[in-house]
């Protein structure tokens, strides 16, 4: 599992089985500690599973956009907004968050 902060691989420090999920504490090779939950897909209803997948895709898309804004620092807000299909206000908001 890759680290959410730096994308380095991680190792499992601790695994706790508390049905219906497994909770794992992980440590990436750059020292970031984080927690993951593992759930058997058969234990969640279809609606919850689909909503979770949609949520994860939305988070992933938001992270990709954040990265594009960060790497496109020399571009104007309107240029980036056009490229990413988001508003200029959102580009400025992401820039502020990155400072
Ligand atoms: Zn990390």
Describe this structure in words.
It is a single chain. With 99 residues, this protein is of the alpha+beta class. The chain has two domains: 1-43, no CATH class; 45-99. 45% of the residues lie in helices and 24% in strands. It contains three helices and three strands; from the N terminus they run βββααα. Helix 2 packs across helix 3. The longest helix is centred in the middle third of the chain and has 26 residues, at 46-71. The mean pLDDT is 88. Bound molecules: zinc ion. Zinc ion (ZN) binds at residues 3, 5-6, 8, 28, 30, 32.
Summarize the structure.
The protein has 2 domains: 1-43, no CATH class; 45-99. 45% of the residues lie in helices and 24% in strands. The protein has 3 helices and 3 strands, in the order E-E-E-H-H-H.
What topology does this entry show?
Blueprint: E1 10-18, E2 21-28, E3 33-39, H1 46-71, H2 77-84, H3 88-98
Antiparallel strand pairs: 1-2, 2-3
The structure holds zinc ion.
Question: Could you name the key traits of this structure?
Answer:
single chain, 99 residues, alpha+beta, 2 domains, three-stranded antiparallel sheet, 3 strands, 45% helix, 24% strand, flat, binds zinc ion
